[in-house]
Amino acid sequence: MSNQIIHQKPVSKHGKNVAIIAYFTLVGWIVALIMFGQKPTRLGAFHLRQSLGLFLTGVILSFIPLVGWALVFPLLILWIVGLVQACEGEAKPLPFVGNFYQQTLRYVI
């Protein structure tokens, strides 16, 4: 699947808030999920999946000595990219892993 942008007209403030909060720790993700449950938006769902995918990937990498730990830095870069896109109200998959997260976690959120 190619990189695609999910267009949403216009971006709601609630959806953007959910998207941003989802990137701030697991507690922030849970708060964002609760907010999303009150008023679901495509942007919120998209970034909930992206941030959950990054979190789970980080947890898995933390158990792999050296190689996994070395990959945490690129994961941090992806986290920053996701957060910036959430702040801008964009729903663009993260490089390398974004489409995988969207497909794999689509039944979770």
What labels describe this entry?
mainly alpha, 109 residues
Quick recap of the structure?
This protein is mainly alpha-helical and 109 residues long.
Blueprint of the fold:
Elements: H1 13-21, H2 25-38, H3 42-62, H4 67-70, H5 72-87, H6 98-104
Mind explaining what this structure looks like?
- 65% of the residues lie in helices and 0% in strands.
- The two termini are 20 Å apart.
- The longest helix is centred in the middle third of the chain and has 21 residues, at 42-62.
- The protein is an all-alpha fold.
- The protein has helices spanning 13-21, 25-38, 42-62, 67-70, 72-87, 98-104.
- The chain is built from 6 helices and no strands.
Average pLDDT score: 90
Can you count the beta strands? 0
Quaternary arrangement of the chains shown? single chain
Number of helices: 6
Shape: globular
Largest sheet, described in full? none
Give the low-pLDDT segments: none
